[in-house]
């Protein structure tokens, strides 16, 4: 069945460091891919998404490219800030499975000044 | 973007009592809403899929008699934790997809339940 695998955290970076959070997926069809962010004590917010191969989603300096050949959707940011400290979830949704969402386990990021 | 609101954002109750959590889509209609439970190590567990006007679909291992879900309208779903016990203490999050979507899920702010 469909699934998402995320790199385990927690991840701790210094401010202005480069961030990569790996995400790979398993799906038999053509899923849409998402990154959600959860700030402390809050629900999840959509960070970015991509709906087909080679699409690049971007928002707030974060980017992720839909790579069908490697079944990956890695999240990157060139220079992180303290305010980026949160938990990041990779997810997929596929029409074939009724658009049910499958989430990764989440990666906690802490950025220190 | 679309807004999903949950209420209450936190609640403390005594063991044995029931607690109701509301999930509302404020500016769109949602045929389907989803209820998640989030455990301390962050992972989201899908509890059930709530369909407007019909019975909820529960995931394996979730007690439907304990976690009552009602989706009475296109903008409101409720989760009632019946006879709550300390092990039910958790962060509960709802989400919704706009009617006619595929498309993204919109999440509520979450509700922190603490059972004493």
Describe this structure in words.
- The complex is a heterodimer of chains A (113) and B (116).
- Chain A is 0% helix and 50% strand.
- In chain A, strand 5 and strand 6 form a beta hairpin.
- Chain A has no helices and twelve strands.
- The relative contact order of chain A is 0.34.
- In chain A, strands 2, 5, 6, 10, 11 and 12 form a six-stranded mixed beta sheet that branches. In chain A, strands 3-9-8-7 form a four-stranded antiparallel beta sheet, with no helix packed on it. Chain A has a two-stranded antiparallel sheet with strand order 1-4.
- Chain A has 113 residues and is mostly beta strands.
- Chain B has 116 residues and is mostly beta strands.
- Chain B is built from no helices and eleven strands.
- Chain B is globular and about 40 Å long.
- Classes of the chains: A mainly beta (113), B mainly beta (116).
- At the A-B interface, strand 5, strand 6 and strand 10 of A face strand 5, strand 9 and strand 10 of B.
């Amino acid at each position: 069945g469909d699934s998402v695998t995320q790199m385990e955290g927690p991840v701790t970076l210094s401010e202005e460091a480069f961030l990569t959070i790996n995400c790979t997926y398993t799906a038999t069809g053509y899923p849409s891919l998402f990154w959600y962010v959860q700030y402390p004590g809050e629900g999840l917010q959509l960070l970015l998404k991509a709906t087909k191969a080679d699409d690049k989603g971007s928002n707030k300096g974060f980017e992720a490219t839909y790579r069908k050949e490697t079944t990956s959707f890695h999240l990157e940011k060139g220079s992180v800030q303290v305010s980026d400290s949160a938990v990041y979830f990779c997810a997929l949704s596929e029409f074939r499975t009724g658009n049910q969402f499958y989430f990764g386990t989440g990666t906690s990021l802490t950025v220190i000044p | 973007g679309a807004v999903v609101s949950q209420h209450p954002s936190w609640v403390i109750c005594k063991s044995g009592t029931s607690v109701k959590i509301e999930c509302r889509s404020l500016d769109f209609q949602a045929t389907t809403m989803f209820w998640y439970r989030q455990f301390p190590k962050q992972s989201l567990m899908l509890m059930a899929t709530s369909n407007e006007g019909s019975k909820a679909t529960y995931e394996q291992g979730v007690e439907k008699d304990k976690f009552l879900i009602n989706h009475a309208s296109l903008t409101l779903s409720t989760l009632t934790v019946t006879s709550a016990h300390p092990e039910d203490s958790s962060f509960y999050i709802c989400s919704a997809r706009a009617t006619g979507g595929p498309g993204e899920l919109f999440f509520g702010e979450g509700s922190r339940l603490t059972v004493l």
